[in-house]
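Researcher: Let's try something more involved. This one mixes different molecule types, so please make sure each is placed in the same coordinate frame as the others.
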Amino acid sequence: NAGVTQTPKFRVLKTGQSMTLLCAQDMNHEYMYWYRQDPGMGLRLIHYSVGEGTTAKGEVPDGYNVSRLKKQNFLLGLESAAPSQTSVYFCASTSAGQTYEQYFGPGTRLTVT
Amino acid sequence: AQSVAQPEDQVNVAEGNPLTVKCTYSVSGNPYLFWYVQYPNRGLQFLLKYITGDNLVKGSYGFEAEFNKSQTSFHLKKPSALVSDSALYFCAVRVGSSNTGKLIFGQGTTLQVKP
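Model: All components are placed in one shared frame. Result:
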């Protein structure tokens, strides 16, 4: 099993450009999450999904959109990137039957200039 | 408001000495508590959890954590630190209803183990 994978690993955008980050998991998990990690601030939840076709806002959703068209994939979109979105983005997933530990992907480092 | 705090940005310890990384929480109801570790340029890895039962929880790599309800704390401990334990450690607590699995994380504590 690959677990949770994220694509791409690194990306540099100019202000105003758009992009999509892809998260994929092969553990048949129902719940998936997108976080951003900034120095000294821990991980903050952007959006999450409790099942295919459903998404919900987390703590810091502004400037991001998500979609969960397939159970194994969770996409995070930036429509018009801003320098404040420079961060490391992590995807995670967990099983609905035991919503305890989350499994994390390796992260995507995004720089917006 | 529900929250979790890690009062120390960095903990320094000599190899072979015991280590403690502190975590306090504020949640309504019974807390579900977690510790994760992050090595450089990697994602977070689950270390251990407290759901219910024995207040001393054992996890991966020889780590353990003690749940103290009266002090609302969940400190991470290890009897003998290794240089390879050097990493960023996060405490987390489950929030919201059980049908979302959401966690909130502390700001992280960098553990530096020196030879």
